[in-house]
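Worked example 3 (structure in, sequence out).
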């Protein structure tokens, strides 16, 4: 362990994915809209959803899907509060509203996934440069919270706001679905990254390049954080890489949950860690998933090194976690899955009790 830094008085302070959770932002689905179809979506959205997106671009998601996801979120918030965690929510907006820059126009998406657009590293909260035009102003839903955290002492930063001009995007390659031949849909025109392509392990962050995170974005963050932080880029076997948190999920120091399809070889940095392969997702194969694979089943949220929130239908995963010494807390969440993520995606851990350290 490196010399620990004294606990921060800042309302924002989180160094890893497992220290005791004190405060969390949980996304909302209110106002969620189907974004305009684009090559950037083609690269990541399940191919059987293409027709849905093309037909419904710019319209609200079906009201009954939004209502069902809201019920899951309410249950999740209730559980978190019952476990002693302070929960904050962003503002939902009407994401069908059209906006633009001098170079393009779009409609929005939602404020459901704070994990993508905000990155907490220690006492700093960083607005990320999202690569999707439909998400360009998404952070505005979170600004009331960010301003309040700043007033109370947080360090609040934004990465350079990307232009998202045509020069950022390339054509999907013929073998875009081949997990062994990753070619990103985005270029190196400017830095972009989603926070959900990073995992935090104290002074070490692990990242993958994806269809939203480019090398320029990773280098921006590396230089921005500077020493003593180290950013390690790893490559996984994912046919639609966008976010690392349905492929690898650190549960506690030295304990890593992996997606056995996407992690045929455990990255070298984890060689001293214990590895648990997630069982196949258990929920119905016909359940609607607009934006993600079924592996959101392993997108877990740690409340501390033992308590973990898991979807109620994932009986095998729950049993394996128990066998491994964890205390799973189950919550209905498959209706939220439809929007592209689970407990880790839907949250931003603003404050966890603990100090920065090295784990490798
Ligand atoms: O399809 O595995 C899930 C995570 C999205 N935030 C996938 C990505």
């Amino acid at each position: 362990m490196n010399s620990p830094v004294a606990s921060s008085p800042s309302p924002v302070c989180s160094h890893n994915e497992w220290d005791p959770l004190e405060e969390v932002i949980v996304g909302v689905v209110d106002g969620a809209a189907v974004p305009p179809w684009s090559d950037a979506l083609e690269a990541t959205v399940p191919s059987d959803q293409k027709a849905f997106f093309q037909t419904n671009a710019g319209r609200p998601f079906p009201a009954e899907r939004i209502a069902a996801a809201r019920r899951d979120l309410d249950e999740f918030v209730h559980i978190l509060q019952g476990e002693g965690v302070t929960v904050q929510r962003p503002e939902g907006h009407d994401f069908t509203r059209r906006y633009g820059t001098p170079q393009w126009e779009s409609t929005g998406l939602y404020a459901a996934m704070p994990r993508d657009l905000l990155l907490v590293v220690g006492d700093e909260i960083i607005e990320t440069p999202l690569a999707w035009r439909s998400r360009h102003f998404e952070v505005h839903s979170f600004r009331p919270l960010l301003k309040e955290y700043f007033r109370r002492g947080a360090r609040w930063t934004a990465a350079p706001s990307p232009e998202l001009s045509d020069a950022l995007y390339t054509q999907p390659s013929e073998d875009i679905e081949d997990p062994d031949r990753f070619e990103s849909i985005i270029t190196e025109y400017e830095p972009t990254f989603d926070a959900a392509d990073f995992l935090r392990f104290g002074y070490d962050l692990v990242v993958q390049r994806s269809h939203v995170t480019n090398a320029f974005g990773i280098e921006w963050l590396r230089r921005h954080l500077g020493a003593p932080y180290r950013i390690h880029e790893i490559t996984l076997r994912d046919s639609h890489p966008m976010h690392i948190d349905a492929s690898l999920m650190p549960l506690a120091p030295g304990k890593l949950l992996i997606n056995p399809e996407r992690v045929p070889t455990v990255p070298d940095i984890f060689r001293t860690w214990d590895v648990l392969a997630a069982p196949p997702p258990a929920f119905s194969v016909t359940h609607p998933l607009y934006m993600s694979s079924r592996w959101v089943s392993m997108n877990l949220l740690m409340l501390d090194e033992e308590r973990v929130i898991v979807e109620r239908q994932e009986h095998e995963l729950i049993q394996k976690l128990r066998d491994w010494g964890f205390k799973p807390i189950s919550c209905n969440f498959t209706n939220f899955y439809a929007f592209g993520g689970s407990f880790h995606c839907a949250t931003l851990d603003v404050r966890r009790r603990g100090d920065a350290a090295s784990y490798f």
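Notes: The chain has eight helices and 17 strands. Residues 1-6 have pLDDT under 50 and may be disordered.
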